[in-house]
Amino acid sequence: MAMTQTTGRLRGPPAKKPFDIRVAVRRLRKAVAPFPKAALFELAALGHTSVFEQLVACIISIRTRDETTVPVARRLFARARTPAEVAGLTAGEIDELIHASSFHEAKARQIRDIAVRARDEYGGVLPCDAAVLTSFHGVGPKCANLALGIACGHHSIGVDIHVHRVTNRWGYVQTTTPERTMAVLQEKLPRLYWVEINALLVPFGKHVCTGVAPKCSTCPLLDMCRQVGVTRYR
Q1: Is the pTM of this model over 0.85?
Q2: How far is the C-alpha of 61 from the C-alpha of 72, rounded, in Å?
Q3: Most buried of 54, 78, 110, 196 (most Cβ within 10 A)?
Q4: Which of 149, 50, 46, 63 has its CA nearest to residue 98?
Q5: Quick check: 58 pLDDT over 50?
Q6: Contact, 130 vs 79, CB < 8 A?
Q7: Dist. CA 136–CA 129, nearest whole Å
Q8: 221, 17 in Cβ contact below 8 A?
């Protein structure tokens, strides 16, 4: 608290401005520019833009840091990129290629199953269809939406832990699960930002609005953020 010159009374912190998502996105673009891209967007920038590659990369990314996801996915794709090529590998061979990711044995079987179905049922090209993608074992809305948004240009929101945590901390949504966050964002967030929100909030959540002790003192959104649940910050 600061003391005013005229009265000597303690003055509280300045009132928060109304949260303006358009202003927030402009500031976020600048704030995350120095940081590495979120894994799936980085892989897309490197040319891995098919629905199959994006879906496989998202599976690899589950419970795995982006710093590991990108090289692991690139290692797999250097050996096999198409459904036919991946289906030609055994689950053990896929496991060997992705072993640095978490739960790699289960993921290897899952990836091979998707490759086989993509080859046999869809002629080697997965369609831009959410129902098809979520029909694969272990593929939820986050991975399906990210693949559709990045590979197909669909308006879809991929909500991971960063998107869930940060939007709730802002006070922009008030939800308890990523699934509920996705539903509320679909109602509230302008469609223009549906894909980009993940690209922005993954690096922002990793480097600025961290899970523990976020860097509020230097955050470009501090004047709008309600800091919901923040008890300690830097």
Answers
A1: yes
A2: 9
A3: 54
A4: 63
A5: yes
A6: no
A7: 12
A8: no
